[in-house]
Prior knowledge:
By secondary structure, this protein is an all-alpha fold. It is built from 5 helices and no strands. It has helices at 2-5, 23-34, 47-62, 69-80, 82-94. Helix 3 (47-62) crosses helix 4. The protein is globular, with a radius of gyration of 17 Å. The termini are far apart. The model has no long low-confidence stretch (mean pLDDT 90).
Amino acid sequence: xxxxxxxxxxxxxxxxxxxxxxxxxxxxxxxxxxxxxxxxxxxxxxxxxxxxxxxxxxxxxxxxxxxxxxxxxxxxxxxxxxxxxxxxxxxxxxxxxxxx
Length: 100
C-alpha cells in the first residue's frame, strides 16, 4: 500500500524484485483469501481477521484498496459481529458530547 501511495510500484518486468510481486497480484491474492468463506480461517473468527479486516476496511475507506464485492462483503460481516457492535457502542459512548 505504501509503495502504491507513493507511486513507487515496481515495473512489471521487475516485480519479482519487489518482495511482494505486483500490487495487482497481491490484491488478487487478498481477494481470494476472503472470497467464498466466512472468515480468513474458514468458519472461525481469528486474530487474522482482526488484522486483515482492519487493513481491508481502512483501505476501502481511504481508497487504497479498490472496491470489490468480496472485500465489501467481508468487511460488512466483520462489522456486523456482535463483539464489533458492542466495541463500537462502547467507543461511541466514551466520546465527548458534541457542542452545538
